[in-house]
Structure formats: C-alpha cells, structure tokens
Amino acid sequence: MSKLDALKAQFAQKTNSNYDESWKKFYSFWKMPDDTTAVIRFLPDADADNPMGFLVENLVHELVVNGDKKKVACASMFGEACPICELSRKYYDEKNEDMGKKYYRKKSYIGQVLVVESPIEHDQNQLVKLIDFGPKIFKTIQAAFQSGDLEEAPYELKGGYNFRIKKTKAGQYADYGTSSFQPKQTDIDDNIVNQLELFDLKDYRAKQVDSATLSAMLMADQTGQPLAAAPGEAPSDNDTAMSAVKAAASAPAQESAPAKVETPVAASAASAASAPAASAPAPSEKAATVLEQLRARAAAKKAEG
Questions:
Q1: How many CB atoms lie within 10 A of CB 217?
Q2: Where are the alpha helices (DSSP H) in 175-210?
Q3: Fewer Cβ in 10 A, N or C end of the chain?
C-alpha cells in the first residue's frame, strides 16, 4: 500500500461517531419550547472523590481551525498554564475587549439526572441521562445552597430534591433564570434505584490536549493558516480536542409544540409529593449502602471498558 493510500485509509476512519454516541446520552433540554418546564432529579457522581458531589466544571475555548469552529479544553482545567487564557488576558490588558472576549474560556457544568417530566421527547430506554448547562442554572443551584432551604444534598436518593428547569425568553435568547428546586423532599423508588448506572462525570468534560497541539491550534486560529504539527510531532486529529458539548453548539432548532412525557420516575415523585408533610428524614443507611454499590458498579464497568 502506498503512503497516500495509507493516509486515505487513516483519514477515512476519522469520524465524529464517538461524539455522536456520547451526545445521545445527554438530555437536550435546550430544545424545550419557550415557557415550558422540565423536572429532573440530579444523581451523585460515580466518582466519590468529586468535591462538588454531582457536578463537574467544564472549561472550553472556541478556535477557528482549518475553517471550522472547534471547542478545545482549557488547559487550566487540568492544572496547567493555558496559552489561550494568557492571550485573552493580554487583549483585555490592552483594552481590546472584543478580542479578549473571543479567547476567553466558556464555562459549563455537567451532571447526570433522572428525567421526571419533560416537554420534549427523549429516549426513555436510557434511564440516566447526562446534562450540560451554563452559569445561569448553576447560580440558581448555588443560591439554593446558600438560602438554607435545602435540608439534604439535592442528589440524595432518599430525601433529595427534584429540580425544575424553566425556559423563558430574554430578548432573543433563551433564559433559565427562573429555574428552581422543588420545595418538598422526595424519595426515588427502589425499583428505579436498582436500575441506575452512574457515570463518572469527568469522563464527559472536554478532552485534554497536549500543549504543543494546543499552541498549534491557537496559531492556526490567529493566522488563518492550516493547522501544522508541532516540531517533532505527527499531525493531530483535531477532533480529539473536542468534547461531546460540540453538539450543543449545532443543536437542531427547537421543536414547535410541547408534548408532556413522563418516565416511571414521575409516578414515584408524584406519590411522594402527595404524601402528608413530614419532617425531613436523614438519608437512610440503606440509601448510603446502595450509593456505594452504584459507585462500585460504575467503577467496575469503567475498568472493563
């Protein structure tokens, strides 16, 4: 096989199938029509060492490489100096806010949820779904912790809280600022708990890119020239610099009409909500044991993969 034929074969294999498959795991709440509400239940991270418990921060930069807009992980997310952040600060120091903003990192948060009620269709065969949202919803969650209204961690299997994602319109943009936790604690039905397969959330952040490739991508964005390999390195597959959140930027247009859909979780949540009010119970020892089992199951599944 000639070198050209070998290259053709290699590049024919470079597809976005991994990202497409990964994105199917996400609940696409941004497709909700305006003035509709989805009800979800946050679940704990399979990684018990996650200090945030049920969310991970995702930091990306947007670069134009070879004529295509790419989302690339911010190196600071992995404890390294980020040349794109440095360039952004440089532009801001020079009072060039447009360029500073262009290179400033975008922040989102990734969690996993049960979908209790949804105004849009979704794959109900997949019980646990990932979710990716911006600072507006995160600030709502942050405010709930600071308010003292939450008596338990909201992602507890027993005694946790459902969360309402409300989509409204602010000018021409979607707004989720009126989202909130529901005031009553509820339990997830044991039948549902037994079916849970938790994700390790950090696996769904933007993938780390080596410093040489990151610098080469930044240079390509600044000059408009094709991406060149760093000295001594082979050309990189640009798509490895992207996470599943790439699909969010090109998500299909909103669906025209809501169609309320309920999963089996809704029946459990509804029955709990209609029960007589009682003092908030502490998470049971059984629930803690189940959570450890879920995390062990997720770790074993990851090791097998």
A1: 24
A2: 190-193
A3: C
The C-alpha atoms of residue 95 and residue 89 are separated, in whole angstroms, by 10
Instruction: Name the DSSP letter for residue 76.
Output: G
Residue owning tokens 């039948």: 191
User: In whole angstroms, what is the distance from residue 187 CA to residue 77 CA?
Assistant: 34
Residue 244: count other Cβ atoms within 10 Å of its Cβ. 26
Helices 83-93, 211-223: axis angle to 10 degrees equals 40
Domains, the chain, ordered by start: 19-304 (3.90.198.10)
CA nearest to 140, candidates 182, 171, 77 = 182
**SS3 of 189, please?**
coil
**Residue whose pair of structure tokens reads 């989720």 in the numeric block:** 176
State pLDDT tens for residues 40-54: 999 999 999 999 999
Phi-psi region of 118 (alpha: psi -120 to 50; beta: other; left: phi over 0): beta
Question: Reduced to 3 states, what is the DSSP secondary structure of residue 198?
Answer: coil
Does residue 235 carry a pLDDT above 50?
no
pTM of the predicted model as reported, rounded to 2 decimal places: 0.73
Tell me the C-alpha distance between 198 and 297, whole Å. 8
Q: Which residue has the higher pLDDT, 296 or 281?
A: 296
Q: Is 110 left (phi over 0), alpha (psi -120 to 50) or beta?
A: beta
Cα separation, 184 vs 163, in Å, equals 11
The percentage of residues in the chain with a pLDDT greater than 70, rounded to a whole number, is 71
Which of helix, strand or coil describes residue 138? Answer: helix
Distance (Å, whole) CA 261 – CA 240: 35
What single letter denotes the amino acid at residue 304?
E
Q: What is the pLDDT of residues 122-150, one digit of tens each?
A: 988 899 999 999 999 999 999 999 998 89
Query: Alpha helices, DSSP H only, in 151-225?
Result: 190-193, 211-223
Q: Is the pLDDT of residue 203 over 50?
A: yes
